[in-house]
Design brief:
The protein has 303 residues and is α/β, with parallel strands linked by helices. It folds into 2 domains: 10-35 and 133-302, 3-Layer(aba) Sandwich (Rossmann fold), CATH 3.40.50; 38-130, 3-Layer(aba) Sandwich (Rossmann fold). It has 11 helices and 10 strands. The protein has helices at 34-39, 41-45, 63-75, 88-92, 96-103, 135-153, 168-181, 199-209, 233-246, 255-264, 282-295, and strands spanning 10-15, 18-24, 53-57, 78-83, 107-110, 123-126, 157-164, 187-194, 218-219, 273-278. α3 (63-75) packs parallel to α5 and α6 (135-153) packs across α7 (168-181). It binds pyridoxal-5'-phosphate (PLP). Pyridoxal-5'-phosphate (PLP) binds next to α1, α3, β7 and α7.
Length: 303
């Protein structure tokens, strides 16, 4: 198995006239979606002699699904994944995370069959999107990397910004940074935005993992409501502009909402240094980008 490239590097980028630090978790492993390598770190590194099979569920183009298929392949476990529905077009022409998961030997099953099963010792059950306590282990390491870097470069007040799905990464990162910075002169604030559901939904997700609200990240949102997985002209434009100005490919599902929130809520105008966390997810762009190109033909020519 190829080793994880951690600590991940921090680069400087300039976007729309402002400097940001960019933590490149997308570079952790060529076959992993960045933040899933953090969330699944526990199972990548530990010893699990009894486990034979991984079982999980969620959407058919999920980054978590693809990463679990990589984990299962590395560890020589089977992988069963439960979905509501596989569109016939995708079945005929597999693409993106779905294709990669198939190539890794993923067995797809109907979600309706999931409840009936009783799993034994040999099965590792992973919640949708990896929302579970084991994720804390890898995210604690991410927090340590950020804390060490912040000390080294001497930034007193740092804002770490990135978009959330389940909110697991944001919650455990804020919690870990709270404990790491407690006895230092540094403050590190995690700020995030919901991509699935609204701010209330995201806070309910936090509550499932941590009851102490003081340890929760700050949640900001756009005025307009965006639906997860839908295509928006302003998202595509922003993504293209990011690529043009920084040369970095961001994820098309979460990052446009992230950057849009930064601007709309004027986080970018603050004096504080901002570290944007690139959480990977580029395999998903293989299916998202053709959808955008079909919906907004020629828009990429403007860039
Ligand atoms: C999974 C994922 C997220 C969401 O992470 P959560 O811990 O569920 O909030 C964000 N960005 C990318 C690229 C992802 O793959």
């Amino acid at each position: 198995m190829q080793k994880l490239a951690i600590p991940s590097p921090v680069k400087r980028i300039r976007f729309e006239g402002r400097e940001y630090f960019l933590k490149r978790d997308d570079l952790i492993h060529p076959d992993f979606s960045g933040n899933k390598a953090r969330k699944f770190y526990h199972w990548l590194e530990g010893e699990f002699p009894d486990i034979r099979k991984v079982v999980s569920w969620g959407s058919v183009q999920s980054n978590a699904m693809y990463s679990l298929s990589v984990l299962a392949k590395m560890r020589e476990w089977e992988f069963e994944y439960f979905v509501d529905h596989i569109p016939s077009r995708l079945r005929k022409n597999p693409i993106g995370n779905y294709r990669a998961a198939l190539e890794n030997g993923t067995v797809f099953r109907k979600k309706t069959e999931l409840k009936k099963k009783e799993w034994g010792e040999e099965v590792l059950f992973v919640e949708e999107g990896g929302r579970q306590p084991e994720a804390e282990e890898g995210i604690w390491l991410l927090a340590q990397e950020i804390f060490d870097w912040q000390k080294e470069v001497g930034i007193g007040n740092l804002t770490v910004f990135f978009p959330s799905g389940t909110g697991t990464t944001a919650l455990y990162l804020q919690k870990s940074l709270h404990f790491l910075t407690r006895h230092s002169s540094l403050t590190t604030k995690v700020v995030t935005t919901p991509c699935v559901g609204d701010a209330r939904y995201l806070c309910r997700q936090f509550a499932m993992l941590e009851s102490d609200e003081k340890l929760w990240p700050t949640v900001l949102d756009t005025r307009k409501k965006y639906h997860f997985g839908k295509l928006y002209r302003e998202f595509y434009r922003l993504w293209l502009e990011l690529y043009r100005q920084t040369g970095v490919e961001f994820d098309l599902l979460y990052d446009p909402k992230g950057w849009l929130t930064l601007f709309e809520t004027k986080v970018h105008e603050s004096e504080e240094e901002i570290l944007y966390l690139h959480q990977g997810g580029l395999k998903g762009n293989e299916s998202m980008l053709p959808r955008y190109q079909r919906k907004y033909p020629g828009m990429d020519n403007e860039f």
